[in-house]
Amino acid sequence: MCCCCSAGAATAAAVVVVVVLRLVLLGRFRELMYRRTFRAFDKNKSGKIDKSDLQKVFSEVKMFYVRERDIQRMIQIMSENGSRDVDYETFITYFFK
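Above: the chain's sequence. Below: its structure in token form.
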């Protein structure tokens, strides 16, 4: 193999490494942002979002009024197995995927 071919292969390998690193960092950044968003909603720091958490979030936003029954319906739609709260994975599925 001539020096030009090996230099081209090394450059291609370096480009692949950079692309993979960027994707990994983007994935980690995205996960960090998801977790921060979830924690912002989890007002009582229980690890799950419940009706009282959503009521606090909507009262803090003050852009619009959300009725209690609408908040209950949101939790009902998102919660699995009829539970009255939403875990991290479910939250991410509904809001980001």
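Residues 3-96 form a domain with the Recoverin; domain 1 fold (CATH 1.10.238.10).
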